[in-house]
Amino acid sequence: MDVQGKGGILGRNVTSAPLTVADNVRELRKAAGLTQEEAAESFGYSLRVWQTKEISGTLPAPLRQKEYEYLLLLAGRHPYLTLTPRK
């Protein structure tokens, strides 16, 4: 898939500081059509670590900004970018 749009993770420097987004990490994962196992593998985490990212108030921190933007993109909810199939 190609990424189209402006700004976002591909066109600017972003901080790696964690965001407080645990409340909607699960919602976005489901919107992207991913199981917890698939999401964990896609982001390079163990299943247990991914599960903690879906629980508010737990450590480690939910997701880094780049990870959150990628999850938004997969879920079709990124404000500036969309995925389109390659031709």
From TrEMBL:
Does the entry feature the keyword Secreted, yes or no? Answer: no
Q: Which UniProt keywords apply?
A: Plasmid
Domain (HTH cro/C1-type): give its ranges. 25-46
Instruction: Say if the entry is tagged with keyword Oxidoreductase.
Output: no
Cross-referenced SUPFAM superfamilies: lambda repressor-like DNA-binding domains
Q: Which domain of life is it from?
A: Bacteria
Q: Which GO terms describe its molecular function?
A: DNA binding
Query: What is the protein named?
Result: Transcriptional repressor
